[in-house]
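User: C-alpha coordinates for this complex, please. No commentary.
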Amino acid sequence: MFIQFFGSYLLSKGAVSAEQLIDAIEKESSAYVHPGALAMHAGMMSSEQIEDVRIAQTHNDKNFEELCVEKGYLTKEQVDELLASQYPRYLSLGQILVENGVFDESAFHELLASYIAENQIKEKHLPGENGETIHSMLEKYCAHIESPDKAYHLEYLNLFLNNLVRFIGDDFTLLRPVTDVSSYTAGKYASQHTTGIYDLTSVLDMSEDTAIAFAGRYVSEQFDEFDEIVQASIEDFLNLHNGLFHVNMSNSYSIELGLEPPAFGSDRMLNISGSTYIFPVLFPFGIVNILLQEPLSQTL
Amino acid sequence: MLLKDSKILIGDDSILARRRLKDLLSDMGASHFIEAVNGAEAVEKYIAEQPDLVFLDIVMPVKDGICALKEIMRQNPEALAIIVSSVGTQQQIKAAIEAGAKDFLQKPLNRDQLKNILAARFDASIDNTLRE
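Assistant:
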Protein backbone atom coordinates (compact mmCIF):
# COMPACT_ATOMS: atom_id res chain seq x y z
CA MET A 1 0.00 0.00 0.00
CA PHE A 2 3.08 2.29 0.29
CA ILE A 3 3.02 2.97 -3.44
CA GLN A 4 -0.58 4.26 -3.36
CA PHE A 5 0.28 6.58 -0.48
CA PHE A 6 3.49 7.73 -2.20
CA GLY A 7 1.42 8.82 -5.21
CA SER A 8 -0.90 10.67 -2.89
CA TYR A 9 2.10 12.30 -1.18
CA LEU A 10 3.60 13.46 -4.48
CA LEU A 11 0.28 14.99 -5.49
CA SER A 12 -0.10 16.76 -2.15
CA LYS A 13 3.40 18.26 -2.54
CA GLY A 14 2.57 19.46 -6.04
CA ALA A 15 5.48 17.40 -7.37
CA VAL A 16 3.35 15.74 -10.06
CA SER A 17 0.10 16.28 -11.90
CA ALA A 18 -2.59 13.60 -11.78
CA GLU A 19 -1.92 12.81 -15.47
CA GLN A 20 1.83 12.42 -14.92
CA LEU A 21 1.19 10.21 -11.93
CA ILE A 22 -1.31 7.96 -13.68
CA ASP A 23 1.05 7.54 -16.62
CA ALA A 24 3.85 6.47 -14.24
CA ILE A 25 1.52 4.18 -12.24
CA GLU A 26 0.49 2.38 -15.43
CA LYS A 27 4.15 1.86 -16.38
CA GLU A 28 5.08 0.67 -12.90
CA SER A 29 2.09 -1.64 -12.75
CA SER A 30 2.89 -3.32 -16.05
CA ALA A 31 6.50 -3.90 -14.96
CA TYR A 32 5.57 -5.16 -11.49
CA VAL A 33 6.06 -8.87 -10.81
CA HIS A 34 3.67 -10.33 -8.22
CA PRO A 35 5.38 -12.21 -5.34
CA GLY A 36 3.44 -15.33 -6.43
CA ALA A 37 5.09 -15.24 -9.83
CA LEU A 38 8.48 -14.72 -8.18
CA ALA A 39 7.87 -17.68 -5.86
CA MET A 40 6.86 -19.90 -8.77
CA HIS A 41 9.87 -18.79 -10.82
CA ALA A 42 12.13 -19.63 -7.86
CA GLY A 43 10.51 -23.08 -7.59
CA MET A 44 9.17 -22.32 -4.11
CA MET A 45 5.45 -22.62 -4.90
CA SER A 46 3.20 -24.42 -7.38
CA SER A 47 0.50 -22.66 -9.38
CA GLU A 48 -2.14 -24.55 -7.34
CA GLN A 49 -0.68 -23.19 -4.11
CA ILE A 50 -0.64 -19.66 -5.53
CA GLU A 51 -4.27 -20.00 -6.56
CA ASP A 52 -5.15 -21.33 -3.12
CA VAL A 53 -3.55 -18.27 -1.49
CA ARG A 54 -5.26 -15.89 -3.93
CA ILE A 55 -8.64 -17.40 -3.02
CA ALA A 56 -7.83 -17.23 0.69
CA GLN A 57 -6.91 -13.56 0.20
CA THR A 58 -10.48 -12.77 -0.84
CA HIS A 59 -11.70 -14.05 2.53
CA ASN A 60 -8.93 -12.70 4.77
CA ASP A 61 -7.59 -9.28 5.49
CA LYS A 62 -4.02 -10.49 5.05
CA ASN A 63 -1.45 -9.97 2.35
CA PHE A 64 -0.18 -12.65 -0.01
CA GLU A 65 3.12 -13.25 1.80
CA GLU A 66 1.52 -13.58 5.24
CA LEU A 67 -0.95 -16.17 3.98
CA CYS A 68 1.81 -18.14 2.24
CA VAL A 69 3.63 -18.45 5.57
CA GLU A 70 0.40 -19.24 7.43
CA LYS A 71 -0.47 -22.03 5.02
CA GLY A 72 3.05 -23.43 5.21
CA TYR A 73 3.82 -22.84 1.53
CA LEU A 74 6.75 -20.52 2.29
CA THR A 75 8.99 -19.94 5.30
CA LYS A 76 9.57 -16.42 6.60
CA GLU A 77 13.13 -16.67 5.28
CA GLN A 78 11.85 -17.50 1.79
CA VAL A 79 9.49 -14.49 1.90
CA ASP A 80 12.41 -12.24 2.89
CA GLU A 81 14.47 -13.70 0.05
CA LEU A 82 11.70 -13.04 -2.48
CA LEU A 83 11.02 -9.51 -1.31
CA ALA A 84 14.73 -8.67 -1.21
CA SER A 85 14.87 -9.41 -4.93
CA GLN A 86 12.48 -6.52 -5.61
CA TYR A 87 12.80 -2.81 -5.06
CA PRO A 88 9.95 -1.30 -3.02
CA ARG A 89 7.32 -0.31 -5.56
CA TYR A 90 7.26 3.34 -4.58
CA LEU A 91 10.95 3.53 -5.53
CA SER A 92 10.16 2.15 -8.97
CA LEU A 93 7.33 4.65 -9.33
CA GLY A 94 9.64 7.55 -8.42
CA GLN A 95 12.29 6.30 -10.82
CA ILE A 96 9.77 6.22 -13.67
CA LEU A 97 8.78 9.82 -12.88
CA VAL A 98 12.46 10.79 -13.06
CA GLU A 99 12.82 8.97 -16.39
CA ASN A 100 9.71 10.76 -17.65
CA GLY A 101 11.34 14.09 -16.74
CA VAL A 102 8.67 15.03 -14.19
CA PHE A 103 11.36 15.82 -11.62
CA ASP A 104 15.12 15.25 -11.43
CA GLU A 105 17.10 12.78 -9.33
CA SER A 106 17.88 15.21 -6.53
CA ALA A 107 14.25 16.33 -6.22
CA PHE A 108 13.25 12.65 -6.15
CA HIS A 109 15.72 11.91 -3.36
CA GLU A 110 14.41 14.83 -1.31
CA LEU A 111 10.80 13.77 -1.79
CA LEU A 112 11.67 10.19 -0.99
CA ALA A 113 13.59 11.11 2.16
CA SER A 114 10.76 13.25 3.48
CA TYR A 115 8.13 10.60 2.58
CA ILE A 116 10.09 7.89 4.38
CA ALA A 117 10.81 10.09 7.42
CA GLU A 118 7.27 11.44 7.74
CA ASN A 119 5.76 7.99 7.55
CA GLN A 120 8.50 6.14 9.44
CA ILE A 121 8.84 3.57 6.68
CA LYS A 122 11.55 1.05 7.47
CA GLU A 123 13.54 -0.93 4.97
CA LYS A 124 12.43 -4.11 6.68
CA HIS A 125 9.32 -4.42 8.76
CA LEU A 126 8.80 -6.89 11.54
CA PRO A 127 5.63 -8.98 11.22
CA GLY A 128 2.61 -6.77 11.84
CA GLU A 129 4.59 -3.52 11.59
CA ASN A 130 3.66 -3.01 7.95
CA GLY A 131 -0.02 -2.86 8.88
CA GLU A 132 0.70 -0.43 11.72
CA THR A 133 2.60 1.90 9.39
CA ILE A 134 -0.20 1.84 6.83
CA HIS A 135 -2.70 2.52 9.57
CA SER A 136 -0.74 5.56 10.72
CA MET A 137 -0.48 6.75 7.08
CA LEU A 138 -4.25 6.46 6.82
CA GLU A 139 -4.59 8.46 10.02
CA LYS A 140 -2.50 11.24 8.49
CA TYR A 141 -4.53 11.05 5.29
CA CYS A 142 -7.69 11.49 7.40
CA ALA A 143 -6.17 14.13 9.69
CA HIS A 144 -8.92 16.67 8.92
CA ILE A 145 -11.73 14.34 9.89
CA GLU A 146 -13.24 15.02 13.28
CA SER A 147 -15.82 12.43 14.15
CA PRO A 148 -16.67 10.13 17.04
CA ASP A 149 -16.65 7.36 14.43
CA LYS A 150 -13.19 8.21 13.08
CA ALA A 151 -11.64 4.94 14.30
CA TYR A 152 -14.36 2.98 12.44
CA HIS A 153 -13.92 5.13 9.32
CA LEU A 154 -10.20 4.28 9.33
CA GLU A 155 -10.92 0.55 9.63
CA TYR A 156 -13.48 0.88 6.86
CA LEU A 157 -11.11 2.74 4.52
CA ASN A 158 -8.24 0.38 5.23
CA LEU A 159 -10.32 -2.61 4.15
CA PHE A 160 -11.81 -0.69 1.22
CA LEU A 161 -8.34 0.03 -0.18
CA ASN A 162 -7.34 -3.62 0.33
CA ASN A 163 -10.48 -4.75 -1.48
CA LEU A 164 -9.73 -2.39 -4.36
CA VAL A 165 -6.29 -3.99 -4.62
CA ARG A 166 -7.78 -7.50 -4.51
CA PHE A 167 -10.76 -7.11 -6.81
CA ILE A 168 -10.03 -4.13 -9.08
CA GLY A 169 -6.28 -3.50 -9.18
CA ASP A 170 -3.49 -1.77 -7.31
CA ASP A 171 -2.75 0.88 -9.95
CA PHE A 172 -4.43 3.69 -8.02
CA THR A 173 -3.56 6.60 -5.84
CA LEU A 174 -5.56 8.38 -3.18
CA LEU A 175 -6.58 11.95 -3.85
CA ARG A 176 -7.09 14.43 -1.03
CA PRO A 177 -10.24 13.67 0.97
CA VAL A 178 -13.09 16.17 0.96
CA THR A 179 -14.43 16.73 4.46
CA ASP A 180 -16.65 19.82 4.15
CA VAL A 181 -19.32 18.36 1.89
CA SER A 182 -22.56 20.34 1.68
CA SER A 183 -23.80 19.08 -1.67
CA TYR A 184 -22.84 16.27 -4.01
CA THR A 185 -24.03 15.28 -7.44
CA ALA A 186 -23.46 11.60 -8.07
CA GLY A 187 -23.04 9.85 -11.43
CA LYS A 188 -23.54 6.08 -11.34
CA TYR A 189 -23.63 5.06 -7.71
CA ALA A 190 -24.51 2.33 -5.25
CA SER A 191 -25.33 3.13 -1.64
CA GLN A 192 -25.76 0.88 1.36
CA HIS A 193 -26.76 1.51 4.94
CA THR A 194 -24.94 -0.12 7.86
CA THR A 195 -26.86 -0.15 11.13
CA GLY A 196 -25.82 -0.62 14.74
CA ILE A 197 -23.07 1.02 16.74
CA TYR A 198 -21.46 2.17 13.47
CA ASP A 199 -24.37 3.84 11.70
CA LEU A 200 -23.14 4.64 8.22
CA THR A 201 -24.32 5.08 4.67
CA SER A 202 -21.56 4.24 2.22
CA VAL A 203 -21.80 5.42 -1.37
CA LEU A 204 -19.64 4.18 -4.23
CA ASP A 205 -19.86 6.70 -7.05
CA MET A 206 -18.23 7.14 -10.43
CA SER A 207 -18.90 8.41 -13.94
CA GLU A 208 -20.54 6.15 -16.51
CA ASP A 209 -17.28 5.50 -18.39
CA THR A 210 -15.44 4.79 -15.15
CA ALA A 211 -18.23 2.40 -14.09
CA ILE A 212 -17.89 0.46 -17.36
CA ALA A 213 -14.13 0.07 -16.83
CA PHE A 214 -14.54 -0.70 -13.11
CA ALA A 215 -17.06 -3.47 -13.85
CA GLY A 216 -14.80 -4.84 -16.56
CA ARG A 217 -12.04 -5.36 -14.02
CA TYR A 218 -14.37 -6.65 -11.31
CA VAL A 219 -15.92 -9.41 -13.41
CA SER A 220 -12.99 -9.83 -15.85
CA GLU A 221 -15.13 -9.07 -18.87
CA GLN A 222 -15.10 -6.39 -21.53
CA PHE A 223 -18.09 -4.04 -21.46
CA ASP A 224 -18.81 -1.50 -24.19
CA GLU A 225 -21.82 0.16 -22.62
CA PHE A 226 -23.48 0.72 -19.30
CA ASP A 227 -25.83 -2.23 -18.83
CA GLU A 228 -27.44 -4.16 -15.97
CA ILE A 229 -24.29 -6.21 -15.32
CA VAL A 230 -22.19 -3.05 -15.04
CA GLN A 231 -24.75 -1.62 -12.61
CA ALA A 232 -24.83 -4.89 -10.65
CA SER A 233 -21.02 -4.89 -10.48
CA ILE A 234 -20.96 -1.54 -8.68
CA GLU A 235 -23.61 -2.74 -6.22
CA ASP A 236 -21.99 -6.13 -5.80
CA PHE A 237 -18.55 -4.69 -5.06
CA LEU A 238 -19.95 -2.34 -2.40
CA ASN A 239 -22.08 -5.12 -0.90
CA LEU A 240 -19.14 -7.54 -0.87
CA HIS A 241 -16.85 -4.97 0.72
CA ASN A 242 -19.43 -4.06 3.36
CA GLY A 243 -20.06 -7.74 4.11
CA LEU A 244 -16.34 -8.37 4.58
CA PHE A 245 -16.13 -5.26 6.76
CA HIS A 246 -18.87 -6.68 8.97
CA VAL A 247 -16.96 -9.96 9.23
CA ASN A 248 -13.82 -8.06 10.26
CA MET A 249 -15.68 -6.00 12.85
CA SER A 250 -17.25 -9.14 14.27
CA ASN A 251 -14.04 -11.17 14.34
CA SER A 252 -11.68 -8.42 15.50
CA TYR A 253 -13.87 -6.37 17.83
CA SER A 254 -16.92 -8.56 18.55
CA ILE A 255 -19.08 -5.81 17.04
CA GLU A 256 -22.16 -7.07 15.22
CA LEU A 257 -23.60 -4.68 12.64
CA GLY A 258 -26.68 -4.80 10.46
CA LEU A 259 -26.62 -4.37 6.69
CA GLU A 260 -29.44 -3.26 4.43
CA PRO A 261 -29.59 -4.21 0.74
CA PRO A 262 -27.64 -1.92 -1.60
CA ALA A 263 -29.52 0.58 -3.75
CA PHE A 264 -28.49 1.96 -7.13
CA GLY A 265 -28.93 5.48 -8.37
CA SER A 266 -27.93 7.54 -11.35
CA ASP A 267 -27.15 11.19 -12.05
CA ARG A 268 -28.73 12.87 -9.10
CA MET A 269 -27.90 15.16 -6.23
CA LEU A 270 -27.48 13.22 -2.99
CA ASN A 271 -29.25 14.22 0.17
CA ILE A 272 -26.46 15.39 2.49
CA SER A 273 -27.64 15.70 6.08
CA GLY A 274 -25.03 14.46 8.56
CA SER A 275 -21.26 14.77 8.11
CA THR A 276 -20.11 13.34 4.81
CA TYR A 277 -16.56 12.54 3.75
CA ILE A 278 -15.45 11.86 0.20
CA PHE A 279 -12.37 9.77 -0.52
CA PRO A 280 -11.50 9.96 -4.21
CA VAL A 281 -9.38 7.15 -5.65
CA LEU A 282 -7.65 7.84 -8.94
CA PHE A 283 -7.31 4.89 -11.33
CA PRO A 284 -6.00 5.11 -14.92
CA PHE A 285 -9.62 4.62 -16.08
CA GLY A 286 -11.11 7.37 -13.90
CA ILE A 287 -11.92 8.49 -10.38
CA VAL A 288 -13.82 6.20 -8.00
CA ASN A 289 -15.33 8.04 -5.04
CA ILE A 290 -16.23 6.38 -1.78
CA LEU A 291 -18.46 8.55 0.40
CA LEU A 292 -19.00 7.90 4.08
CA GLN A 293 -22.17 9.54 5.37
CA GLU A 294 -22.84 9.75 9.07
CA PRO A 295 -26.40 10.16 10.33
CA LEU A 296 -27.47 13.68 11.29
CA SER A 297 -27.34 13.01 15.05
CA GLN A 298 -23.71 11.92 14.75
CA THR A 299 -22.49 15.33 13.59
CA LEU A 300 -20.25 17.09 16.11
CA MET B 1 -29.97 -37.42 -7.05
CA LEU B 2 -27.80 -36.14 -9.87
CA LEU B 3 -26.86 -32.48 -9.94
CA LYS B 4 -27.63 -32.35 -13.65
CA ASP B 5 -31.21 -33.44 -13.02
CA SER B 6 -31.73 -31.16 -10.02
CA LYS B 7 -33.98 -28.17 -9.98
CA ILE B 8 -32.01 -25.35 -8.33
CA LEU B 9 -33.48 -22.17 -6.87
CA ILE B 10 -31.12 -19.19 -6.57
CA GLY B 11 -32.37 -16.32 -4.41
CA ASP B 12 -30.16 -13.25 -4.67
CA ASP B 13 -31.02 -9.62 -5.44
CA SER B 14 -27.83 -9.22 -7.50
CA ILE B 15 -28.12 -10.35 -11.12
CA LEU B 16 -24.34 -10.62 -11.14
CA ALA B 17 -24.28 -12.91 -8.08
CA ARG B 18 -27.01 -15.10 -9.61
CA ARG B 19 -25.14 -15.29 -12.89
CA ARG B 20 -21.85 -16.18 -11.20
CA LEU B 21 -23.45 -18.97 -9.19
CA LYS B 22 -25.31 -20.29 -12.23
CA ASP B 23 -22.07 -20.32 -14.24
CA LEU B 24 -20.26 -22.31 -11.55
CA LEU B 25 -23.15 -24.77 -11.17
CA SER B 26 -23.50 -25.13 -14.95
CA ASP B 27 -19.80 -26.03 -15.14
CA MET B 28 -20.56 -28.81 -12.67
CA GLY B 29 -23.40 -30.15 -14.77
CA ALA B 30 -26.48 -28.36 -13.47
CA SER B 31 -28.92 -26.98 -16.02
CA HIS B 32 -32.30 -26.39 -14.41
CA PHE B 33 -32.39 -23.03 -12.60
CA ILE B 34 -35.10 -20.92 -11.02
CA GLU B 35 -34.23 -17.38 -9.98
CA ALA B 36 -35.67 -15.12 -7.30
CA VAL B 37 -34.69 -11.49 -6.71
CA ASN B 38 -35.70 -11.28 -3.04
CA GLY B 39 -36.60 -13.50 -0.10
CA ALA B 40 -40.37 -13.28 -0.61
CA GLU B 41 -40.06 -14.34 -4.25
CA ALA B 42 -37.75 -17.18 -3.20
CA VAL B 43 -40.42 -18.54 -0.84
CA GLU B 44 -43.13 -18.22 -3.52
CA LYS B 45 -41.01 -19.97 -6.10
CA TYR B 46 -39.99 -22.66 -3.63
CA ILE B 47 -43.64 -23.49 -2.97
CA ALA B 48 -44.55 -23.38 -6.66
CA GLU B 49 -41.54 -25.25 -8.03
CA GLN B 50 -40.41 -27.51 -5.17
CA PRO B 51 -36.70 -27.32 -6.14
CA ASP B 52 -34.16 -29.93 -5.02
CA LEU B 53 -31.58 -27.40 -3.92
CA VAL B 54 -31.83 -23.78 -2.73
CA PHE B 55 -29.16 -21.08 -2.56
CA LEU B 56 -30.08 -17.93 -0.63
CA ASP B 57 -28.29 -14.66 -0.06
CA ILE B 58 -28.90 -13.07 3.37
CA VAL B 59 -29.07 -9.33 2.64
CA MET B 60 -32.02 -8.98 0.26
CA PRO B 61 -34.90 -6.53 -0.11
CA VAL B 62 -38.50 -7.30 0.90
CA LYS B 63 -37.53 -10.38 2.93
CA ASP B 64 -34.01 -11.37 3.96
CA GLY B 65 -32.55 -14.80 3.31
CA ILE B 66 -32.80 -16.03 6.91
CA CYS B 67 -36.55 -15.23 7.10
CA ALA B 68 -37.08 -16.82 3.69
CA LEU B 69 -35.19 -19.91 4.79
CA LYS B 70 -37.33 -20.28 7.92
CA GLU B 71 -40.48 -20.17 5.79
CA ILE B 72 -39.05 -22.67 3.33
CA MET B 73 -38.14 -25.03 6.18
CA ARG B 74 -41.68 -24.75 7.54
CA GLN B 75 -42.91 -25.82 4.12
CA ASN B 76 -40.42 -28.65 3.91
CA PRO B 77 -38.24 -29.54 6.91
CA GLU B 78 -36.12 -31.68 4.59
CA ALA B 79 -35.30 -28.80 2.21
CA LEU B 80 -31.68 -28.67 1.09
CA ALA B 81 -30.73 -25.01 1.45
CA ILE B 82 -27.34 -23.29 1.40
CA ILE B 83 -26.77 -19.69 2.43
CA VAL B 84 -24.38 -17.69 0.22
CA SER B 85 -23.41 -14.35 1.72
CA SER B 86 -20.60 -11.85 2.14
CA VAL B 87 -21.70 -11.31 5.75
CA GLY B 88 -20.14 -14.47 7.16
CA THR B 89 -20.05 -13.39 10.80
CA GLN B 90 -20.36 -16.06 13.49
CA GLN B 91 -23.76 -14.61 14.39
CA GLN B 92 -25.06 -14.89 10.83
CA ILE B 93 -23.64 -18.38 10.33
CA LYS B 94 -25.31 -19.47 13.58
CA ALA B 95 -28.62 -17.87 12.52
CA ALA B 96 -28.41 -19.59 9.13
CA ILE B 97 -27.72 -23.03 10.60
CA GLU B 98 -30.44 -22.58 13.23
CA ALA B 99 -32.88 -21.60 10.49
CA GLY B 100 -32.10 -24.88 8.73
CA ALA B 101 -29.26 -24.12 6.30
CA LYS B 102 -27.15 -27.16 5.52
CA ASP B 103 -24.12 -25.01 4.74
CA PHE B 104 -22.83 -21.46 4.57
CA LEU B 105 -20.73 -20.14 1.70
CA GLN B 106 -18.79 -16.91 2.17
CA LYS B 107 -18.74 -14.60 -0.85
CA PRO B 108 -16.81 -14.15 -3.07
CA LEU B 109 -17.63 -17.66 -4.20
CA ASN B 110 -14.96 -20.03 -5.28
CA ARG B 111 -15.46 -23.16 -7.30
CA ASP B 112 -13.66 -25.56 -4.95
CA GLN B 113 -15.71 -24.62 -1.90
CA LEU B 114 -18.92 -25.00 -3.83
CA LYS B 115 -17.80 -28.29 -5.33
CA ASN B 116 -16.87 -29.72 -1.92
CA ILE B 117 -20.23 -28.78 -0.44
CA LEU B 118 -22.15 -30.28 -3.34
CA ALA B 119 -20.03 -33.43 -3.43
CA ALA B 120 -20.93 -34.01 0.22
CA ARG B 121 -24.64 -33.48 -0.42
CA PHE B 122 -25.13 -35.08 -3.80
CA ASP B 123 -24.29 -38.57 -4.88
CA ALA B 124 -20.74 -37.90 -5.99
CA SER B 125 -20.32 -41.50 -7.09
CA ILE B 126 -22.79 -40.78 -9.89
CA ASP B 127 -22.01 -37.16 -10.66
CA ASN B 128 -18.58 -37.29 -12.24
CA THR B 129 -18.16 -33.55 -12.54
CA LEU B 130 -18.16 -33.22 -8.76
CA ARG B 131 -15.31 -35.69 -8.41
CA GLU B 132 -12.93 -33.93 -10.81
